[in-house]
Amino acid sequence: MRVIIAGSGLSGLVMGHCLLRAGIDDFVILERRPDPVERSGSVIGFFAQTFRILDQLDLLHDVQKLAPHLHRWTHLDPSGRTISDGGFYDFLEINHGHPSMLFMRRDLMEVLYSKLPGRERHIFPNKKIVDVKQDDSSVTVTCADGSVFNGDVLVGCDGVHSAVRGLTFEASEDPKTRPPRAEYRGLFGSSPRPDGIPANNVTETHGKGIAFMILCTEDTAFWLITTRKEEGASDSQKSSAEDIKALVGKYKDHSVAPGAKVTWGDLWQTRTTTPCPGMYDYHESVAERWYSGRVVIVGDAAHRMTPNLGQGGNSSIESVASLMNHLHALVEEKPNPSTAELEEAFASYQEERQAQVKFIAGLTGSYTRWATWRNWLGWFMQSWMWPLLGDRFIVNWFLSPMIKDSIKLDFVEEKNLPAGKVLWKYH
User: Of 111, 132, 255, 341, which sits most exposed with the smallest number of CB within 10 A?
Assistant: First the structure.
């Protein structure tokens, strides 16, 4: 079987590793950018369920040595007063064994790329997909440079603005493939960690229409500033340098540390410029249709959510694992499956994942609105209910039930599963 993967981002590279573990060496990864490794200055968080899959791919130690464990999550009001401060991430580690960790996205992507065997013959940069055609026996991809790739399966791992989704599903003008909405946007970047913000913790300051999430390692403060977009703004709005300047100017005196020891302006003044800070829209959608014939989408191409609970990347990797489980089972039984047989496997993958990611996307979207005090309910949930319930209760009753049911690869051994209080559904 020959597999074509669109996109060498998180989902695409993990898909490549999974294919090799499944004994499928005949695949290509087509990346539209000239650099196959994403060099974004944003950060990404991984939880226990993702580390189980990385363990199966022999990537666990290489990834975990990139960063320390996270411990606490502190919530502040606009004056710097502590609303709540608990061992949120410690409780997750106690329950599930693996830690919660925060990575510079470019460092993580470098590991996924450099550890992919035969990457030079598998990954092709400068391959912008402009056409997708399929018949009963194959799928053909044409790129902007005129190159053509043929395969048995095409997997769209090419993000929220997926070319594969657009060319395969949206070309039919199916209303169920409507583009994702974007009501919020975020400014991300990093600065040297100031003394007033604790290391290896998340410190989040809430206000009307704004949330400052500062995620700190020993040396670096990664920040994500979430705001609601202007009424009537486009769902595909591109932010400019002027947009960033306006946001910084509006909130430069806003406290972002306990006791108001540090302002947002302080962090901005010491920002890292390589890579530069960036602003992007938070697209929110779960596609109703994930496959058509020999084409299937995964990760952000199928489900995109706000980043404030750090579930986007974790959900994408879990969806890759689900797709691979169904594809591996099919190919083991039928090495050259028909289109109908592939669609049956893809349907099982969608059925297994769709309801779960809808729930997660709804949860993260709700949290984004609570964190920015969208209305009185958001203020009440963040300022009163969260501290009243406490981090241990929230982890035990909301996060752990979701994490313990997470999918892993069912055809690869798991070597390093640390003990936790909560029993995994798949172990």
Answer: 341
Find tokens 């309801």 and name the residue. Answer: 355
- pLDDT tens digit sequence for 256-314: 999 999 999 999 999 998 878 999 999 999 999 999 999 999 999 999 999 999 999 99
Cα separation, 14 vs 76, in Å, equals 36
Cα angle for residues 110, 111, 114 (degrees, 5° grid): 80
For the chain, give every domain's residue range: 3-69+104-180+284-374
Q: Where are the beta strands (DSSP E) in 96-219?
A: 101-104, 123-124, 129-134, 139-143, 148-151, 153-156, 181-192, 202-207, 210-216
Task: Please determine, for residue 326, whether its predicted confidence score (pLDDT) is greater than 90.
Answer: yes
Cα(107)–Cα(421) distance, rounded to whole angstroms?
31
DSSP one-letter string for 5-18: EE--SHHHHHHHHH
Asked whether the beta carbons of 75 and 385 are under 8 A apart, the reply is no
Please tell me what DSSP assigns to residue 67. Answer: S
